[in-house]
Amino acid sequence: MGVVKTDAPKPKPAQAEEIVLVDTLPKQDTIIAEIPAVSLFTGHQLKPANQTPVKKTDFFPGWITVLLLSCVLIIAYLRASYPKRFTEFFRAVLDMRFASQLVREEKVLSQRVSVFLTVVFLFSSSSFLFLVSNYFNIQLFSGEGFLVFGKIALTVFLLFAFRILVSELTGFVFNAQNEFSFYNFHVFLFNKALGLALLPIIICLIYATAFPQAVFIYTGIILFATSYVARLIRGLNIGLAKQGFNKFYLFFYFCTLEILPAAVLAKIILRYTA
Asked: Model pTM?
């Protein structure tokens, strides 16, 4: 039999179903509310100290370490070469009668020991004042670094030299040369003790970084105040012990040459620390 071919229609492919997504949510108008921005930097109590940027100097310059090492070597030399004078120095600081005995015997320690201890006081006190001015951002003199330290050291030297000169002149006017000379001896005595006491404070400021710097700063300030008060008490005892000395002159001297400069210095410190 033969095969008969018929042109039968081919089945059409099924059309893909169209998927229509209908938004079933009701349409609403979008309202954008403007919320005012609240600044976190308003209403604080931090007040600017300067209107322009102030350059921060290095708090621990290397030359202070050299000065401290020099002071330590000087103390070691005095302790090894003049142990007796060194012991008499500390005893004279604590005992006024022993200091009077040294003056009467013309054993004012020794010239070399006295000069070296004065140098230690000048270096340590000037270094501490430099660090205090740096800590409180007080511009004492123009310049920076060692130049400022040199100006502070020169100012400290000139102030004490002027105070000693005026004190000796006052003793001549009031006919109390011996008493004022004895008082000046105690001034130098307490200054030398202060210079030794400030050395560990400065060392801690430089190397004891784990502790707050403010602790050592205020400890040094307390040492300054303690030395000053002790010096005043010695001076009052010397003045009151002199028979026939006018107490008004004593009061006038201490108010003009001792209390007034200290009050001005305290006002300056409080102005920058308050």
From this structure: 0.72
